[in-house]
Amino acid sequence: MPQDMPPSGGYEPVQYRRNLPVRGFRPAYYLVAVGAIMTYGFWRVGQGIREQNELAREKMWSRIYLIPLLQAEEDRDLVRRTLASQTMEKELLGAETKVYHSDRFVRPTYAVTPANVTK
What is the pTM of this model? Predict the structure, then answer.
């Protein structure tokens, strides 16, 4: 029996690769797009941080500028309380009494107490 031989001219090439159309862009384009979006995002975050720092600085300086006004208000309240206390002492005791043995002003310390305390 004769041996089977390939046809003259050889067999046809075997198609092992799929010829599908390329979909989408090249991966390098995707990388560039993602990099551009991230760069824009980080730039906006930096702007936001800079804005927050500026607002915090403005808030700090506005509070610093308000300190003399608040101190003057507290001093006026202290003078009003001191005069009211001296007037009340004079009404209750009939004479003005001194707690300290000098004329130097000593800042009083007022404790915060509830207005209506019933015991």
Answer: 0.51
Position 115, amino acid: A
- DSSP sequence for 101-116: SSSS-----PPP--S-
Integer CA distances (angstroms), 33 to 6, 28, 36, 80, 89, in order: 54, 9, 5, 69, 81
Residue of 102, 79, 83, 100 lying closest to 91 (CA atoms): 83
pLDDT in tens, the chain (119 residues): 678 888 888 899 888 888 888 888 898 999 999 999 999 999 999 999 999 999 999 999 999 999 999 999 999 998 899 899 889 988 998 887 777 777 777 777 766 655 655 54
Residue 82 contacts by C-beta under 8 Å, 6 or more apart in sequence? 108
- Token readout for 9 is 């001219």
